[in-house]
Amino acid sequence: MSGTPRVKAGLWVSMALRLGDQDGRPGMVLRKGDPDAGGVLVVLRGREGVSVLSQMRSAEGELAWMRGTGPGPVDQEAADAYVARQVRFDPDLWVLEFESRDLLPPFEAKLVP
Q: 92: helix, coil or strand?
């Protein structure tokens, strides 16, 4: 198997929340998913609106993130609709939210277009 080893979702969520607290970007769990194999959506709440990052794997198998709601900020209604669609598709998803004025995550993230 190529790429980085997979960390259990529950552990990754705990790490992301700690990093958010340390970085002044407080976060919270909006929806608990599968503690072992669940994917993660990250809602970033900024000055200009909201952006939702969706976890994915790159062609090389590395953890990466895409802005599921598009390149720019969206309103709360659009973000909620995106999250609801993804949860219907994958009921094991975790949903986290961070305060992030610049709409960047508090953890190291490879953002893909």
A: coil
